[in-house]
């Protein structure tokens, strides 16, 4: 039959329908084939029908799918796909659905033939239209009056309905899927659906996504991604509002999350290799780095990645709806209670998983909803002391940066560090900029005549010259950093430099380079060591809290916003009473440090030993007294060098614009 139809089409002019095709359509041959496939009689008929439909739609070039005697049986056959998990016809079902998706891709308007309302009770009975939830799952015209037997067998009560007059009533069907509506004079008005029977193309694809056959599951995912990427706005609205797409995708995400063991190690969550949804070919027997729960963790992250990629490819209407659904039904209802629990072990696992989720999300819609979930909506005014925190999760995460448990503090700081690297403007605004916009951290002093003369000489009014600062008076002379080659490319300061209120870059750089006295420095004694070296190495050891704090601050210092730059990187800003700058805090830390190192015998040799050990140059594992303090000294030195480098690079970036 197929060969005859194909040959007939090839022999005729383009677009002209032949007698064989007319016969197929007029005599509802496809409807008959569908009926045979539902009973699979004779055995194997369903498989043959699926193959025929697939080849017919794939090989016939004429636009036959919009014909009522084609799309109706195709609709019904779509509903048969995925009804039985791991069915013997699963491969044919998937090929058929892929062919339908390809047709829809060619003509996006066709998608509306396969999207059926899940809440069609909102619409009145439509004459000459199809009800997706008629009794027995069959599509029936609303003009079809049910038999007396159907009415007698239908449990339920007549319910008043105002849509057809005050005396109109309806009787609930036996399967609780529809109402049979009647007017006050007994005239049958048709079947009106009240259910959420998702018997459509989207539902079939979502069902086959759960197939134990990985190839079938991936094909179903690809078909669904093709549907959501259609440019038709009406189709996108139907996908978002009239299918179970959002609910089922989110429900699967929730189910996979519930399957995660509570005994997961946070370090295993953090160190797991990147996961891609289409390449989830994990084999536990071949995995030399397996850990309990790895299979379920990969499954969860794979599905999260799929949802993220689906949102990235989807029409903006569908993408927004799915992202909101994930925030409401997964982030808020599932993830938030885990993050707000009191168990330290539970906090560690949930925060590690949150950091992993933040790292993995890439689509702008889902990232935006994640930011709203964690930080709340964008505020226009600074935070006021004593006001209720909104949301509470944001406040709780900020408080945990200084938790009694170092592990909780580190994991929370890692989450913020990851968050700061995401490309969303509300992140930095919510965490920092909203409280810096009015520059209340500065103490304003009216300029004097002396200040004007200082500004003319290329300095900033009110600044303290570094050479006159008693803290640095002893360390400036002969300091090795002042003669470093990398400082020389700095452009010559123009006579006007400094009048714009910015501190000269050489003053900023030297302030941070010289803040740690020479007797507490050790970097010049070990080659190839830098701040990034310690950051990389820290992932292999129990992570130091100080190092994580400085890592977050370095990320903040890199942002080009002028207020943030001023607050973090300008040592000469006149701070208002009660305000602390990063530089002032470091000065206090160094002052305390210089007192404490006087009590450590052989401080310099021990400091060098610890530095070599941190970067893997010394295999000695013997215990060293005051280890935490010595590591802190090294981190502080490298951090100050990092801040100096950031200030220098940002200055050059601005000068080249």
UniProtKB/TrEMBL annotation:
InterPro entries per record: FHIP, FHIP_C, FHIP_KELAA_motif
Domain FHF complex subunit HOOK-interacting protein C-terminal: from-to ranges: 535-616
Source taxonomy: Eukaryota, Metazoa, Chordata, Craniata, Vertebrata
Species assigned in the record: Eptatretus burgeri (Inshore hagfish)
Pfam families the UniProt entry points to: DUF5917, KELAA, RAI16-like
Recorded family membership: Belongs to the FHIP family.
Chain segments carrying region Disordered: 125-168
Domain of life where this protein originates: Eukaryota
Protein name: FHF complex subunit HOOK interacting protein 2
